[in-house]
TrEMBL record:
The keyword Methyltransferase does not apply. PANTHER family: ALIPHATIC SULFONATES-BINDING PROTEIN-RELATED, TAURINE-BINDING PERIPLASMIC PROTEIN. Its main location: periplasm. It is found in: Periplasm. This is NitT/TauT family transport system substrate-binding protein. Keywords: Signal. Belongs to the bacterial solute-binding protein SsuA/TauA family.
């Protein structure tokens, strides 16, 4: 007759204690893993410092996730729908987003386009006045739309005076002939992809009143949820932006991404003005008033109800607090 194993009181006590501890452990909620800051970066020179910082291991992927997007409208939708927390957008694009009901804050100016955004036409069209009735390709509701409107105004024309052809800049090289375009609005580096078409430059952002300011636009919640990551991101920009202009092998990741040579990329940078930390503080702190004045002025042309637009002041959108917290 088999004898049952005898369990001592101590053994039973230990087993009960283990069971209690396991039960308690199961009741403790597991803290959710913190998501990284998601930043939409388009194909634009002013966004490339972050790509270099990431490649150099200076941006921790657990803290900052760069989401590469080839066209601006995709970045606008992504930040508007909170698919990403921040994006590099032009000032006019930020205004469009806010007036569509998507709250954004501007925490830094990345750069100013002084000729890197262009309106280009076929060889038989040499001036803006000749564009009346022509087929012009551009990315709607972006800085390209604003630049086209600005160019047409100079010839007393309106958008309705041309045939508007919505397009994705990344596809222009393949579809320019197919769409029978007479002209196209592009930013660098896409302009470089069209060199074989021998297009004329009839207007660009180097002209008076046509400069395009690009900024880092952030969802307000991210200013709280990802404040440290945003500070790291901004530090990386100010550290790596000067290195873009120095050239060399360290730019290889950028050159591969943009599909241009080192020489061509340096030509692009001649039309891009860098904005350092000190000037950023002056601009967003409104010590230098021109950016705030531009913000107000742009709303008149972008929003139908200009009086309502004027009620949106720079102080409601510009946030220099992160700049002040940079080490």
């Amino acid at each position: 007759m088999s004898q049952r194993p005898f369990l001592s009181f101590g053994t039973i006590a230990i087993m009960v204690l283990v069971a209690v501890l396991w039960g308690a452990a199961l009741q403790v909620p597991v803290p959710p893993q913190e998501e990284p800051l998601r930043v939409a970066v388009g194909m634009w020179a002013g966004a490339e410092p972050w790509v270099l910082a990431r490649e150099a291991g200076e941006l921790d992927s657990r803290q900052v996730n760069l989401v590469e997007m080839n066209w601006t409208s995709a970045a606008m939708r992504a930040v508007g729908n909170r698919v990403v927390d921040a994006a590099v957008l032009s000032l006019d694009e930020v205004i469009r987003q806010i007036h569509q009901g998507y709250p954004l804050r501007i925490v830094m100016v990345t750069d100013i386009s002084r000729g890197a955004d262009l309106l280009m036409t076929k060889g038989n069209i040499s001036n803006i006045a000749a564009l009346k009735g022509c087929r012009i390709g551009y990315e709607p509701r972006t800085s390209g739309a604003w630049l086209l409107s600005k160019a047409l105004q100079n010839a007393n024309l309106k958008l309705s005076d041309v045939q508007q052809v919505p397009l994705n800049p990344a596809e222009v090289e393949e579809i320019f002939q197919e769409l029978a375009l007479d002209g196209v609005v592009l930013a660098e580096p896409w302009r470089q992809r069209l060199s074989s078409l021998n297009l004329n430059k009839v207007y660009d952002s180097s002209l008076s009143g046509a400069s395009i300011v690009r900024v880092l636009a952030v969802h307000p919640d991210a200013l709280v949820e990802h404040r440290e990551a945003l500070i790291s991101l901004m530090q990386a920009h100010f550290r790596w932006m000067p290195r873009l202009f120095q050239g060399g092998e360290k730019l290889n990741p950028v050159l591969r991404r943009e599909g241009v040579s080192g020489e061509v990329f340096q030509q692009i940078l001649k039309n891009v003005e860098s904005v350092d930390r000190a000037q950023n503080r002056r601009l967003l702190g409104r010590e230098e008033p021109w950016l705030g004045e531009l913000f107000v002025e742009l709303q008149k042309g972008l929003v139908e109800d200009s009086q309502a637009a004027l009620r949106l002041q720079p102080s409601e959108v510009f946030d220099p607090s992160l700049l002040e917290e940079l080490p």
